[in-house]
Design brief:
By secondary structure, the protein is mainly beta. The chain contains 1 helix and 5 strands. It has one domain. The strands form 2 sheets. It has a 3-stranded mixed β-sheet. The chain is globular and about 45 Å long.
Length: about 100
Amino acid sequence: MFKNLVYIDNKVIDKNKLSVSSTKINDFITDELIKEQGKRIQTKQLITSDLNNWKCQIEILNLTHQKLKRMIGIEGLINLRQMNLGHNLIEKIEGL
């Protein structure tokens, strides 16, 4: 349809992975999703003792448009300062 489209949301498109209709709904937040979408503030020094516990280094998590139903899977994000969950299927957030 869009033969010349190269970027979506500032990311290069892998045309082999595109599908016309994606109806997959994510019941929870996976580690892979956090690794792909999470960010560590670059001004802070990487603590070498925490290399195995990579979740403690995530400070920003942008999970917009992921078709998430629940917020299960964010345990261990102890330094999370900012999270964007816009345009998902989450109906209620409790216990923050």
